């Protein structure tokens, strides 16, 4: 399987609390929910179709618990095509603290995470998908485990919050595979890692 990621991200790189103000932080995040309702029908269909082609899903612990409490628990969401896709495919969680996953067909990956994910990628199938899970995506990129990355760029500058790419981190060249912009200004960009960038000489 190839490992693919899909991330909703602001113009300034924020990924925190994109769906709801208090989804990730009990004390609230006053600028949360910045991606909610954004994108047109074509973008929503693209997201749904992406979930439907997954052979398995990989999550960080926080995103897994958010999804388990929504897509895995609320009847209306469970019946949605995304909920159905999540129910039918095996789910893996990268966590050293989760001991009792509450969603059926879930496996917790502990120990040597890079080895465990590499083993998953060697299994037959199409895509091992990562949705959300910003901390995990940063780690996967740093460890050269991502085969394809989709960024859904929301036309907003949030101004604060956790960002997908750190201020100081590994560098990575990207090849653009696909790019489109919808009628509401949301951009979908699909990239494949292409080794280290080349820099101009002094």
Structural class: alpha/beta
Radius of gyration over all CA atoms, rounded: 17 Å
Give a quick account of the main beta sheet: strands, pairing sense, barrel closure: 8 strands, mixed
Helix content: 25-40%
Output mean pLDDT.
91
Spatial order of the strands forming the largest sheet = 4-3-2-5-1-6-8-7
Count of strand segments: 8
CATH superfamily placement: Dihydrofolate Reductase, subunit A
Tell me what portion of residues adopts beta-strand conformation: 15-25%
Please provide the ordered H/E string of secondary-structure elements: EHEHHHEEHEHEEE
Q: Are there runs of 5+ residues with pLDDT below 50, and where?
A: none
InterPro entries: DHFR-like_dom_sf, RibDG_C, Riboflavin_Biosynth_HTPR
Protein name: Deaminase
Domain Bacterial bifunctional deaminase-reductase C-terminal: 3-187
GO molecular function, one term: 5-amino-6-(5-phosphoribosylamino)uracil reductase activity
